[in-house]
Amino acid sequence: MLRVRLHGRGGQGTKTAGSIISLAATLEGYHAQDSPMYGPERRGAPVASFVRISRDQVNERGYITSPDVVVLFDRSLASSKAVDPLAGLRKAGVLVANEGPEGTEGSVVRIDASSRARRLVGRDNVSAAMAAATCRALGISRVENVLSAVETELREVGLADQDVQKNLALAEECYSLVPALGVRDQDSPEAEHALAEVRYAPHYVSTSLIMSTGNSPQKKTGGWRTSRPVIDYSKCTNCMVCFVYCPDSAIHLDADGAPRIDYDNCKGCMICLTECPIRAVSEEAP
Amino acid sequence: MQADQTAFRTMKDTPAREYLVSGSPLCPGCGGEIALKLALKAMGERTIVAFVPSCFGLLTLYPYSSMKNSTLFTPFACGPAAAQGIVDGINIRVEKGEIKDPRSKVLVLTGDGAAYDIGLQSTSGAIHRRLDFYYLCYDNEAYGNTGFQFSSATPFASATSTTHATESTPGNPLRKKDLFEVWRAHRPPYVATVAVSRPVDLLRKFEKASKIRGPKLFIALGVCPTGWGSEPRETVRVDRLAVETGIWPLKEAVGGRVVHTYVPRRRAPVEEYLKKQKRFQHLFSPKENRGAVQAIQNAVDSYWEGVSE
Q: Fewer Cβ within 10 Å of end Cβ, chain B: N or C?
């Protein structure tokens, strides 16, 4: 069985890429299964999805803790301790990463899918690109079946015709850029975790009581940002518009009534930029 | 209320203190989150929030909470029933002499799924019993937390994950349920609609409601970039267009009498609002569905023809 784990950010196409890889393998006659991480985090937040591919029926379920292949959609996740994308990657496992400079070294494949997607599709959604590169690197599917899977899955998520066509061109390009590494699959099952016995506990122990209110700033959602709003204080008139409209209360007023952005938690929605009546907010790299 | 009796005259009067804090798991550019943020500013610290499964259910997700207020998570259909329990509990403690001046407000916070569909019966019961509570529905016009499935708040022609736009159907074939009128038919002392692009109007309505005993009900437009396919940075613009096209009327009913608190002088064509959102994209591309767009415009026009104040 081949186990593939994909790490990306909400909105990049991590889940859809898993579905494409899974369908492409199925079209080649493999058994395949794919599932996304279930979680509450949103666009820009770290997400993951999982694919299992096998010649036999896939009976294994759940998250993949020891993948043969890791597909990394966003370089910034590599340094995140909370995500730790390479965790459990098996020896001689393959990494397919969305980053430049492009090339293949040993079992690490780098492809600048984001730049290619921006050029060919016009937006940074790399589901088709990363899925095609992965299918090629693993040698699990011929290009025609990869393209067929891309088309089916992108139509499924409601992409318009012209966007599907652009993504097909992108997928074909990425497929051709990557060498077929081939990966030896592993027969051994994933390590089993012993079941923990949960004893009866009174409600004040067993209920998830949060005794500290308003503590979510500790979560540091600033990592979700794809753009950074920057206030030009030489123009700012302290009109409070950005403060009122910041959905996340990530802009507060200092003692002089000037707006201050909490970059630890600003998600980069850029409403402050759009609403600033005197255009004192600019957009910079995250 | 006379204008001179309000603490909120301009945006500058928006209270600086935050009760909704950063670090929530909500999407960047969430319109409903702005509505909640402003509502809590107007309501203050001693507000107990009872909320139900919804995107905003994620505002307290163990071990984190994004509200400084006390919160209680309840089953989907039971927000107002839980509010009854909280109000009764406070009253009993007052009777026993355990607390003197509770000064607590109880806010039920739900999305449109609970307000329009799943929790409507318990809301109906609570209004009927004249429960002294606030209800804020942030209406993003679908089940946004689970993948944007259609709800009875979904407007006509909106594509959702359960009302696809096909050649024969332009997205949702049904019209949006008029929850304002459903609630008003129960004769609550206060019911209002709000939109974040008019924050002073929003703050004033919560201020006015705070002087009224009994059920105080609010529906806030919740622009949803993820579900609607609008740009996160355009959330307030989209909200403003909903108001300026007349699609989202701002009104209140005190003791049942409906008054519009803002009447757009010259209503913008509905296209300006629709074109900002992918959920309506099929009305314009690959070819324009003039009939559906006109039907939306006609519904708006006929609504405003019936408006006298």
A: C
Residue A187: inside a domain: no
Which residue from B21, B60, B63 is facing A249, i.e. has the nearest CB?
B21
Q: What is the CATH number of the domain that holds A59?
A: 3.40.920.10
Q: Which of B110, B296, B127, B236 is nearest to A275 (CA)?
A: B236
Rounded to a whole number, what is the distance in Å from the CA of A90 to chain B's nearest CA? 32
Q: In chain B, which residue's Cα lies nearest the Cα of A264?
A: B23
Residues of B in contact with A243 (CB under 8 A): 14, 16
Where does a domain end: A177, A205, A239?
A: A177
pLDDT tens digits, B23-70: 999 999 999 999 999 999 999 999 999 999 999 999 998 889 999 999
Instruction: Measure A148 CA to nearest chain B CA, in Å.
Output: 22
Give the model's pLDDT for residue A110.
96
Q: Please check whether residue A205 lies inside any domain of the structure.
A: no
Domain ranges (residues) in chain B: 13-305
Residue A283: CB partners within 8 Å, gap ≥ 6? A227, A228, A229, A230, A270, A273
pLDDT confidence of residue B203: 98
Is A264 domain-assigned? yes
What is the arithmetic mean of pLDDT over A7-12?
A: 90
Residues of A in contact with B19 (CB under 8 A): 214
pLDDT at B16: 95
- CA angle (A261 as vertex; A256, A262 as ends), nearest 5: 115
Q: What is the pLDDT of residues B213-230, one digit of tens each?
A: 999 999 999 999 999 999
Enclosing domain of residue A278: 219-284
**pLDDT score at B4:** 58
First-last CA distance in chain A: 39
Residue numbers in B near A252 (CB within 8 A): 16, 18
Residue B281 has pLDDT above 70, yes or no: yes
Say whether domain B13-305 belongs to CATH 3.40.50.300. Answer: no
- What pLDDT does residue A34 have? 97
Burial class (CB in 10 A: 0-12, 13-18, 19+), A68: buried
A98 closest CA partner among A184, A178, A16: A178
Q: How many domains are contained in chain A?
A: 2
> Do the Cβ atoms of B31 and A269 come within 8 Å?
no
Q: Are residues A126 and A263 in the same domain?
A: no
Same-domain status, A109 and A249? no
Same domain, A137 and A21: yes
**Per the structure block, which two tokens stand in for B150?**
């259609």
CB-CB neighbors (< 8 A) of A158 in chain B: 159, 164
Q: Is the pLDDT of residue B3 over 70?
A: no
| CATH, residue A251 | 3.30.70.20
Find the CB nearest A213 among B28, B70, B159: B70
Last residue of a domain, one of A115, A150, A177: A177
Average pLDDT over residues A81-108: 91
Same domain flag for A262 and A143? no
Residues 6+ apart with CB under 8 A from B287: none
